[in-house]
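Notes from the 1:1 (GR / supervisor)

We went over the backlog. Supervisor wanted to see one worked example end to end before approving the batch request, so GR pasted a single chain during the call. The sequence is below; no edits were made to it. Supervisor asked that the structure be written out right there so they could see what the output format looks like.
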Amino acid sequence: MTVVPAPCLQPIGVATIVPHGDTQPSSVIEAVDQPRYAAKKKGWNRIEALRAHA
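Structure output shown during the call:
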């Protein structure tokens, strides 16, 4: 019996931010999740980006 390892792929969201007095951590997480879930929905080997300006 031959065991072939399955790929272990995890969508990852990355963000950089210059915080302001009214910046909420939840809004940063939500902004990162949007392109991550868009890439996941569109299939394998995808990169999606969201450029937001405050």
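Supervisor's comment: The radius of gyration is 16 Å.
Batch request approved.
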